[in-house]
């Protein structure tokens, strides 16, 4: 517990020093209210009834409850609002696979600040957070949530086929994309190859050039959004910690534009994620641009332990 | 998936040499042949050593049951892995990246029943459901659900052909290669569910952090694939 607490307090200290204020929301919410924010996430939420028959749910992430709270309570006139949290979220698990039903998240939400400025502030803070918990080898993946949505629109793929392809892209199941883009969407060889090639592009600024060669309006839009963010990150000196990734897609519904994932070489799973959610606040009646990230505290803890072990082994050799 | 809880059983992706999980069993030979054609020397894993880990030049190979490959790759204990589509479809809740169809080990997932016997149809019409024995519980459940039929799926661990012969089930869902075992036990194929080949899978973090190594390997294996 002491080590977990230390991670949380390092992050708290950092967030406070950047003028972010702590917020807390209830763990239990009305199901319907959470579903407004992200209907798909509700599939993994624990739900139950109160004595009067209302359906309740345990929050499965922190962003949706905070967006609800911010829409309700914060004056857009005072934007941007800088909020942080350290709290517990709950998700159902696959049995016997060492998953946590209850887990800690530490993160921030920057509400009322547009792209690219808000996105850049977010990524800088995320990198500072990784340094604060000693994960100096961790890398932030930066992608664009609208790239494939707009590309499929451009290719005229809609309905079931569109959903299936986006779903397979999020899972990075390239074999299925090759097959299903043909079967379901009737796309030709060239289009399928293009989708697979795009989703495999990841690296430094050169991937934007490689993407532009593939062409198309959706690609042009996404790459110029990413290029804008990336050059600001270069100016602020954190670009070396950021990997552009055109194949990055998250399975949360509310992301628009920039999306983030956090990787540490000591761990086989992502240790955090985030992105812009410019449409989420509008679902709660008060549209505002916003972005945020969350670190999974338990995974950060494992990554720390692994990094230390690897360093010890390295020293012994 | 967001629908799943947060994993904590996960280990390193970094380290020196890339690790590839290979399936012992029917796909082992084909996997080693593929690595040979891609320029690796597989003499050691081909030998009769009881070792589970082999150091090839430029690649560490770890060997295991085919159905364990997604487990090791998802956790990052292996960066890459080769296993059958049947295994991946059965464990579709594992999040691994499926990078390439390697083409070999082609088999078919089928629904089969005793030749000339109508107990599948009889159970469906009289009981409202069919009793199906299988090693592939999820694939079978998904298939019947997607075709709008009720099935009572009974999971068995081996020799599935036995089940309809002694009245445990009306039919089976199983993987067939030549179909000889089925024929010799008096069963016949009724419906084809899918075609399964060997696939190359990757750990998602390794895919992001070892970009050049992974892309080069995918390229080499794709070119070497039959």
Summarize, please.
With 317 residues, chain A is an alpha+beta fold. Chain A has twelve helices and 13 strands.
Number of helices of chain A: 12
Question: Biggest interface in this structure?
Answer: A-B, 48 and 36 residues
Radius of gyration of chain A: 20 Å
Taken as a percent bin, the fraction of beta residues of chain A is: 15-25%
Put simply, the count of helices of chain B is 10
Low-pLDDT regions of chain A: none
Radius of gyration of chain B over alpha carbons? 20 Å
The rough form of chain B would be described as elongated
Query: Quick check: average pLDDT of chain A?
Result: 91
Describe the structure.
The complex is a heterodimer of chains A (317) and B (226). Chain A has 317 residues and is α+β, with helices and mostly antiparallel strands. Helices cover 45% and strands 20% of the residues of chain A. The longest helix of chain A has 20 residues. Helix content of chain B is 33%, strand content 29%. Chain B has 10 helices and 12 strands. In chain B, strand 8, helix 6 and strand 9 form a beta-alpha-beta unit. At the A-B interface, strand 6, helix 7, strand 9 and helix 12 of A face strand 1, strand 6 and helix 9 of B. Strand 6 of chain A pairs antiparallel with strand 1 of chain B.
């Amino acid at each position: 517990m002491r080590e977990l607490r230390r991670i949380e307090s390092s992050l708290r200290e950092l967030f406070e020093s950047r003028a972010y204020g702590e917020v807390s929301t209830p763990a239990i919410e009305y199901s319907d209210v959470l579903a407004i924010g992200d209907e798909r996430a509700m599939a993994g939420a624990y739900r139950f009834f109160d004595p009067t028959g209302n359906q309740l749910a345990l929050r499965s992430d922190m962003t949706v409850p905070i967006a609800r709270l911010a829409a309700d309570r914060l004056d857009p006139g005072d934007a941007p609002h800088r909020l942080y949290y350290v709290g517990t979220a709950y998700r159902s698990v696959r049995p016997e696979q060492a998953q946590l039903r209850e887990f800690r998240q530490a993160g921030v939400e920057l509400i009322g600040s547009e792209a690219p400025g808000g996105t850049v502030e977010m990524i800088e803070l995320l990198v500072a957070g990784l340094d604060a918990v000693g994960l100096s080898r961790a890398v932030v993946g930066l992608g664009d949530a609208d790239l494939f949505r707009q590309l499929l629109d451009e290719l005229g793929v809609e309905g079931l086929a569109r959903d299936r392809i986006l779903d397979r892209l999020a899972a990075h199941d390239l074999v299925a994309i090759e097959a299903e883009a043909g079967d379901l969407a009737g796309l030709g060889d060239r289009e399928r190859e293009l989708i697979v090639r795009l989703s495999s592009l990841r690296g430094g600024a050169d991937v934007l050039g490689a993407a532009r060669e593939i062409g198309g309006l959706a690609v042009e839009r996404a790459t110029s959004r990413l290029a804008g963010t990336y050059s600001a990150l270069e100016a602020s000196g954190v670009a070396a910690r950021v990997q552009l990734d055109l194949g990055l897609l998250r399975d949360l519904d509310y992301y628009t534009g920039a999306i983030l994932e956090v990787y540490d070489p000591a761990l086989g799973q992502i240790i955090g994620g985030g992105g812009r959610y410019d449409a989420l606040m509008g679902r709660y009646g008060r549209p505002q641009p916003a972005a945020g990230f969350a670190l999974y505290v338990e995974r950060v803890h494992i990554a720390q332990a692994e990094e230390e072990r690897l360093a010890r082994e390295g020293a012994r050799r | 998936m967001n629908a799943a809880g947060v994993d904590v059983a996960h280990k390193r992706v970094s380290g020196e040499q890339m690790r590839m999980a290979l399936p012992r069993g029917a796909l082992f030979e084909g996997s080693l042949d593929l690595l040979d054609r891609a320029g690796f020397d597989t003499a050691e894993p081909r030998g009769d050593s009881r070792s589970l880990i082999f150091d090839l030049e430029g690649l560490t190979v770890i060997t295991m049951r085919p159905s364990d490959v997604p487990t090791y790759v998802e956790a990052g204990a292996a960066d890459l892995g080769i296993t059958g589509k049947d295994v991946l479809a059965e464990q579709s809740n594992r999040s691994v990246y499926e990078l390439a169809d390697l083409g070999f080990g082609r088999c078919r997932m089928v629904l089969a029943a005793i030749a000339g016997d109508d107990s599948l149809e009889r159970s469906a019409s009289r009981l409202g459901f069919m009793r199906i024995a299988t090693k592939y519980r999820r694939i079978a459940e998904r298939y019947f659900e997607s075709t709008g039929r009720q099935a009572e799926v009974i999971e068995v661990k081996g020799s599935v052909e036995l089940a309809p012969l002694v009245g445990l089930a009306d039919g089976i869902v199983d993987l067939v290669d030549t179909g000889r075992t089925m024929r010799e036990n008096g069963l016949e194929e009724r419906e084809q569910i899918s075609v399964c080949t060997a696939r190359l899978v990757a750990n998602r973090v390794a895919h992001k952090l070892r970009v050049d190594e992974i892309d080069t390997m995918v390229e080499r294996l794709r070119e070497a694939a039959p």
